[in-house]
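Tokens as discussed.
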């Protein structure tokens, strides 16, 4: 492993943390129960006049890598909370539970501790499944609006098999928990519409060392512990909240068809917004467009 001062990834991580701080957020850690500790970013000064919004990251990198471009825009208007899900960033548990429902329950406990009475929730990919469960669990009294981005909440076993076929892998962890530069290249080709042309192996290796090596065993268990996508039919129940679905038209992980199906089942008046020339991470690739859609919905 390269020492931190030589690591492009560590330098960039320091820059992102600086961006979070500049937006008025602070890094904190709390025990949410006897077995579970969560790391999160929260406003240094919580404002009683602002609504609150919780951003839930996807599988892969810890929260700060996924929401940098949103935090800067949202923080002046909302109290912004950005938790790291269990086994990402500094969050961990001694519990043996690994499902997305458990992740949602832990985020719920954290928000209880923070006395967050009402809030909007935004989740991407795996985090969208967590957001969906949080909204179900707490109901519309507490969770106001729900944004599901790039997240196959309605996916089935067949969608999983299709994804493996597109990636030409046997196991989902080879794709979602890459251990070699070659696997990481594959993941990038499916998640980013226009991956950078020049990606030297040393840089990819740096990413693998710094960001994918930690808690590998537990992250594998999270993938196995997912309750979504296990059966041949999906029967999710509709949400009571107002729902916005945002998706990249070229999503290589969850094809856009899943967004259309999700819109039909998640809520009668769910809004669906597609972003052109974006794949699985429109909040990064097309941050401006993503933010406009998001703000429009949250403020409207
Ligand atoms: C898990 O258990 C160990 C040993 O009892 C303890 O030191 C650690 O703080 C626990 N972790 C969490 C997240 O509670
Ligand atoms: C999503 O749910 C709807 C309604 O339950 C169903 O008709 C559709 O086939 C589901 N999509 C998938 C991919 O399972």
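Sequence:
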């Amino acid at each position: 492993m390269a020492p931190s001062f030589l690591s492009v990834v560590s330098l960039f991580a320091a820059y992102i943390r600086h961006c979070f701080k500049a937006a008025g957020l602070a890094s904190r850690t709390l025990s949410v129960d006897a077995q579970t500790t969560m790391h999160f970013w929260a406003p240094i000064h919580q404002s009683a006049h602002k609504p609150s919004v919780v951003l839930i990251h996807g599988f892969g990198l810890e929260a700060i890598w996924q929401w940098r471009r949103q935090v800067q825009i949202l923080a002046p208007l909302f109290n912004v909370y950005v938790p790291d899900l269990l086994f990402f960033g500094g969050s961990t548990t001694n519990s043996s539970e690994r499902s997305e429902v458990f992740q949602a329950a832990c985020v719920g406990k954290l928000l209880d501790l923070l006395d967050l009475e009402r809030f909007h929730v935004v989740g991407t990919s795996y985090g969208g499944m967590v957001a969906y469960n949080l909204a179900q669990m707490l109901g519309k009294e507490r969770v106001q609006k729900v944004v599901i981005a790039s997240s196959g909440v309605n996916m089935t076993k067949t969608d999983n098999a299709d994804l493996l076929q597109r990636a030409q892998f046997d196991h989902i962890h080879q794709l979602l928990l890459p251990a070699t530069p070659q696997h990481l290249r594959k993941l990038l080709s499916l998640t980013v519409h226009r991956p950078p042309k020049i990606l030297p192996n040393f840089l990819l290796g740096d990413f693998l060392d710094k960001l994918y090596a930690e808690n590998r065993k537990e992250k594998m268990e999270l993938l196995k512990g997912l309750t979504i996508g296990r059966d041949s039919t999906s029967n999710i129940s509709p949400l009571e909240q107002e729902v916005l679905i945002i998706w990249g038209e070229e999503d290589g992980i969850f094809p856009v068809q899943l967004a259309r199906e999700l819109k039909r089942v998640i809520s009668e008046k769910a809004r669906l917004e597609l972003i052109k020339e974006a794949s699985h991470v429109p909040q990064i690739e097309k941050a401006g467009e993503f933010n406009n859609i998001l703000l429009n919905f949250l403020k409207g």
